[in-house]
């Protein structure tokens, strides 16, 4: 009875989290929970993810990526991001693209990462715009196109992402 109650509380906390601060709180609860309760919680959450709860897939990816080490966990995190991304979760697509670009949790695929960054930028995700711009500037995953890269930096800057403003300024200054 207590195990079930604890599991229900964990699931409620995870599902109700909508901000980074709350995700950090859930991560702390999970990492400080004894192994049997943690395993029960994760198994239940994974089942819900596989049954279509894309927000839970994204949150599981963030929790596993941020709280556990080892290549096996990177594979799991990448898979959760991929599942949510395939269901059009923009932030999950960004995280999946970063893992693809860096080769974390599997083989690197900079071309696919760039395509996901572009897609995210079209959805006004500023980090995606910045990373698409950087890919164009360095010709990673795509052909070099400095003008298009600058436009991505400017869009990210206009969306409020300050590092992109710096990137745009540096590109203009170096020309």
Strand tally:
0
What does the overall shape look like? Answer: elongated
- Residue ranges: pLDDT <50 for 5 or more in a row? 1-19
Biggest sheet record: none
Task: Output mean pLDDT.
Answer: 84
Question: Care to give the gist of this entry?
Answer:
This protein is mainly α and 175 residues long.
Task: Please render the helix and strand layout as text.
Blueprint: H1 2-16, H2 20-31, H3 35-50, H4 54-67, H5 71-86, H6 90-102, H7 110-122, H8 126-138, H9 146-158, H10 162-174
Helix pairs in contact: 1-3, 2-4, 3-4, 4-5, 5-6, 6-7, 7-8, 8-9, 9-10
Describe the overall structure.
With about 180 residues, this protein is mainly alpha-helical. It is about 80% helix and about 0% strand. It contains ten helices and no strands. It has helices spanning about 1-15, 20-30, 35-50, 55-65, 70-85, 90-100, 110-120, 125-140, 145-160, 160-175. Helix 2 (about 20-30) packs across helix 4, helix 4 (about 55-65) runs antiparallel to helix 5 and helix 5 (about 70-85) packs across helix 6 (about 90-100). It starts with a helix and ends with a helix.
Question: Which characteristics define this entry?
Answer:
175 residues, mainly alpha, 0% strand
């Amino acid at each position: 009875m207590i195990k079930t109650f604890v599991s229900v509380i964990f699931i409620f906390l995870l599902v109700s989290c909508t901000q980074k601060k709350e995700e950090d709180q859930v991560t702390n609860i999970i990492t400080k929970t004894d192994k049997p309760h943690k395993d029960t919680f994760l198994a239940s959450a994974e089942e819900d993810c596989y049954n279509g709860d894309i927000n839970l897939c994204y949150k599981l990816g963030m929790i596993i990526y941020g709280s556990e080490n080892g290549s096996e966990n990177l594979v799991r995190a990448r898979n959760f991001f991929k599942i949510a991304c395939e269901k059009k979760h923009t932030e999950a697509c960004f995280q999946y693209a970063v893992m693809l670009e860096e080769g974390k949790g599997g083989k690197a695929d900079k071309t696919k990462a760039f395509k996901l960054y572009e897609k995210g930028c079209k959805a006004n995700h500023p980090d995606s715009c910045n990373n698409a711009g950087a890919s164009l500037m360095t010709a990673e995953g795509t052909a070099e196109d400095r003008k298009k890269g600058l436009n991505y930096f400017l869009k990210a800057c206009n969306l409020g992402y300050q590092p992109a403003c710096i990137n745009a300024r540096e590109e203009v200054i170096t020309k």
